[in-house]
Amino acid sequence: MMDFYNQKHAKARKSHKCEFCGKEIIPGETYSYESGKFDGDFFVRKLCEPCFTMLTEFIDYTGEDEFQWDWIQEWLHDEYCKDDCKDKCEYSFSKVQCCPIVREKFKGLLEEGQ
User: On the chain, which terminus has fewer CB atoms closer than 10 Å, C or N?
Assistant: First the structure.
């Protein structure tokens, strides 16, 4: 259960690593900074903009506010991977969030929301 949660968008002053895709968030790039307390444990999470949008869309889609990263990977794979590339893609199921095709779809969602 979430005891508290804070989220803000920040402009990186130094390099960070996205928790979901592992991409480097470079200085000057906007990212999501999240902190909170879940089941008694404090957490801090930094996500690049496309991964934050993936997370937000997943939560909107499921209506759940609790998740595991592999649930999001499964959802991305099922919803956004084309049938002809699902088994041949160089981005395995565990790295579907790094696929340029999937990331481009979420980049578009970011631009629409601005």
Answer: C
